[in-house]
Model the fold of this input.
Amino acid sequence: MRHGNRRLDLLLAFGAASFLMLPWYRLDSGFFGLGWLGDYPLSEQSAPGVLQLLGHGRLWLLGVVLFFGLGFAARFIADPMRRGAFFSAAGAAGLVYLCLQGLAVGFSGWTWAISETLFGPLSDGQASMGAGAVTMAIVFVLMFAFGLVERGVMKGDAFVVGSISLLVFLVFVFVFYPIGSMLVAAVQDFDGSFKPDGFIRNLQDPGIWSLSCLIGDGRCGVAWRTFTLAIMTASASTLLGLAFALVATRTRFPFKKGLRLLTVLPIITPPFVIGLALVLLFGRAGVVTEALSSLFGIEPGRWLYGLTGIWIAQVLSFTPISFLVLIGVVEGVSPSMEEASQTLRADRWRTFWRVSLPLMKPGLANAFLIGFIESMADFGNPLVLGGSNGVLSTEIFFAVVGSQNDPSRAAVLALVLLFFTLSAFLAQRVWLSGKNFATVTGKGDSGAHIALPRSISIGVHAIVIPWMVFTVVVYGMILVGGFVTTWGLDNTLTLEHYARAFSVSIQNGSIAWTGVAWNSFWTTMEIALISAPLTAAVGLLTAYIIVRQKFAGRNLFEFALMMSFAIPGTVIGVSYIMAFNLPPLEMTGSALILIACFVFRNMPVGVRGGIAAMSQLDKSLDEASLTLRADSFRTVRKIILPLLRPAITAALVYSFVRAITSISAVIFLVSAEHNMATSYIVGLVENGEYGVAIAYSSMLIVVMITVIAGFQLLVGERKLRRENRVAGLGNNNPVPLGQEKTA
Done:
């Protein structure tokens, strides 16, 4: 118990220091800039909590002192069960009180009209929470966790209980609180009173729900337009992804390495660049448009600017993701089951449709879900190609930053978008729940995958080859577009766009980054390099808890974490603006809000990758470490992490790439000081500077390819143990599938 008491003592000392020494409220100059030390601790802005209470009249901080004092008193209770109960109760009550007082008191007084009615007006308000208040909130969370440890919860493992408590707290703050704030803002007036008029008016807007297009009288509402587009994109990308996966694994297609390269390119491409390339091809001054006009006299049209153009761009963008989801599923179908079907005299066609394809259902469902959510959340392609056919993501953007300036409408549209994506997410889980698709067991399996039926083989080749050619042409346009003076008007080759974006000069003996893109480029690299390891750490820690620990509510815990995947980036951006623009947490305009957005937006990928990798590690490794009296933290650090290097690398790469290419959430959160690359490129596109935009995008693609290649060299290839021959191809030489890289 002496070790436990020392842990409690350190926590209490940390909490006391946060209240007595750290600035309680947010500093305009920033905490880490240390500029606040000049007038510390007497100024009202930089004063610690104790001086805010005693010297500046912040009497509501008495509750913080009270609950922390109760925890301090509970420390001296001899019985560990009673000590733990009092300690955890004090921590929970203190955290709830700290959050409530932060929400209730704003800059100028009470935030809620009901508070002023009950308690009377306040003479002064408070700023947003600063280092002291945030640290005290974490102390209260750990007080609650360590109190449970004292009572023997999770076998008294402080690392596990503390990790679960902190993760739940962080997910609540950065996922559920913003969504709740958006919902509240939709039915709230400027003075904080309940006023649902704007919400009801916008919810009943025919422009959202109209179905007049079904009777040929006008256009569908933006909700059904977006939903229809998402269904079309998800269906097409899933079908194409399956065709690509079958060609890569079940045929002797000679360009498989090139096929895999083409599947990686759209993932590392900024989301609106494909839309730009399509404009260069099929716009009114595009290559194909002008060729058709000169050869056949076809008048240039605007067919590309609408749902057709958005659909083509989205299918190009999201098919590679479907392929990456499906290739592992196609490879994972057990050859022995296919051989058993043929042994029972089923032909290749019947075996494929009745055995192989049904076993791919989880992958098909996941690919469709990803395509649906990505289409719903896509912002860049609709912005470039949408024309007058807006979708939910662009309508939300214009409701916030356009001439409408209608936060209530933005909140309603975001809730509609969230409803669609969460419905798809829940429907997919319900459809797959209770079904078993396992085909890989611990037994050896050295069978051979059957060859595709001839008609399917011809069909998938007929789909894949033209699509590969089309993708190469699109990316060729991206490459060429950065070297043309003005596309369609002056096709003279030039380096002017690259020089304007990335010029460098020597001034006063030092390097001067004079290009217009350097500022946003370095900001993007800095934020991506900070957020990537944080995302990997949070995701893998969560995976460890889900796989290795058993506790009440574990399934709910996992579902809550994974639900953030189903929240579109546009909704995240709007909700963060509404939640973190005012007390108690004010982060808008800072790098911190971008980092938090990336970490909790991309965390589910790290969680799923960690779960998949950790499920392959025998629990006896953990048990042996714990038997040798190592605690959970040491076991994770010395045993688990070294065996998870591929999963760690995958999480790092994905987080880094997404931080560079994200736009739907970033467009709402950037500031003049912290402008991200994608947001800057959108500004270039809106100003018609396509050449500079494409040059910048090309540079980002080169940077990401370099980073991914570096990580791939560090980790190496993964080899599949099973070396199968593709049966029925007339080739007696084995085709080792494991020779190909798997991402």
